UniProtKB/TrEMBL annotation:
<keyword id="KW-0862">Zinc</keyword>
<feature type="domain" description="FYVE-type">
    <location>
        <begin position="35"/>
        <end position="90"/>
    </location>
</feature>
<dbReference type="InterPro" id="IPR038632">
    <property type="entry name" value="ZFYVE21_C_sf"/>
</dbReference>
<protein>
    <submittedName>
        <fullName>ZFY21 protein</fullName>
    </submittedName>
</protein>
<dbReference type="InterPro" id="IPR013083">
    <property type="entry name" value="Znf_RING/FYVE/PHD"/>
</dbReference>
<keyword id="KW-0479">Metal-binding</keyword>
<keyword id="KW-0863">Zinc-finger</keyword>
<dbReference type="GO" id="GO:0008270">
    <property type="term" value="F:zinc ion binding"/>
</dbReference>
<dbReference type="InterPro" id="IPR052113">
    <property type="entry name" value="FYVE-type_Zinc_Finger"/>
</dbReference>
<dbReference type="Pfam" id="PF01363">
    <property type="entry name" value="FYVE"/>
</dbReference>
<dbReference type="InterPro" id="IPR000306">
    <property type="entry name" value="Znf_FYVE"/>
</dbReference>
<dbReference type="InterPro" id="IPR017455">
    <property type="entry name" value="Znf_FYVE-rel"/>
</dbReference>
<dbReference type="InterPro" id="IPR011011">
    <property type="entry name" value="Znf_FYVE_PHD"/>
</dbReference>
<dbReference type="Pfam" id="PF16696">
    <property type="entry name" value="ZFYVE21_C"/>
</dbReference>
<dbReference type="InterPro" id="IPR032031">
    <property type="entry name" value="ZFYVE21_C"/>
</dbReference>
Length: 217
């Protein structure tokens, strides 16, 4: 999908040319609290003057002094090219999201192989499952081909095994996915199972499932 570079009061952003191509994980820039409505820092209540300047958090749009809004943190959900100024609370959230973008989304886009069962069928098909580059679709390729829009997914249930009474670790071995069919109220179900009898990387499958669990949150 084509992208364009745009400038806003908050900084430079690389966004899709067409709004319909936006990632479902994206956020809109917040409106800034007007300067005239913000005589004091909205965190520590310090009064703004010629020495104590006000700054707007790029994530929440509120006014803060430099001490309370000094961190510059990547904000991929708003497509900023460079790290941007954020208040302490927003910076923590953005740092966690950056890890999601840097790790989990890349795992999902690289894909993994599963046996996929559609609905109540007793037959399964070996398919490569991955997130599309624009992050809008879950793409399944085998003898059949499916594209499931992420925003239509209603339920993600991760299947695990390996639990012991002593508290042993579990591992993800599959997933049940429910999604709505566009243009109707019909709900479809797919079951994904990491195969034991073909040469796939079990760690990769488990990592893909864990990343999908993060997406559902």
């Amino acid at each position: 999908d084509a992208k364009k570079l745009v400038r806003s009061p908050s900084g430079l952003r690389m966004v899709p040319e067409h709004r319909a191509a936006r990632s479902p994980f994206g956020l809109d820039e917040p409106p800034w609290v007007p300067d005239k409505e913000c005589p004091r820092c909205m965190q520590c209540d310090t009064k703004f003057d010629f020495i104590t300047r006000k700054h707007h958090c790029r994530r929440c749009g509120k006014c803060f002094c430099d001490k309370c809004c000094s961190k510059k943190v990547p904000l991929p959900r708003m497509c900023f090219v460079d790290p941007v100024r954020q208040c302490a609370e927003c910076a923590l959230v953005s740092q966690k999201e950056t890890e999601f973008y840097d790790k989990q989304l890349k795992v999902l886009m690289n894909g993994a192989t599963f046996f996929v069962t559609l609905g109540t069928s007793d037959k399964s098909e070996l398919m490569v499952c991955r997130l599309s580059n624009n992050q809008r679709y879950l793409v399944l390729d085998g003898d059949s081909h499916y594209e499931i829009e992420i925003i239509q997914i209603s339920t993600v249930q991760i299947l695990t095994e390996g639990f012991t009474p002593g508290g042993g670790n579990t591992r993800a071995v599959g997933m049940i996915l429910q999604y709505k069919v566009p243009g109707s109220d019909e709900v479809m179900q797919m079951k994904f199972t990491a195969g034991e009898d073909f040469s796939c990387n079990k760690k990769l499958s488990a990592a893909w499932l864990a990343a999908m669990h993060k997406v559902s949150k």
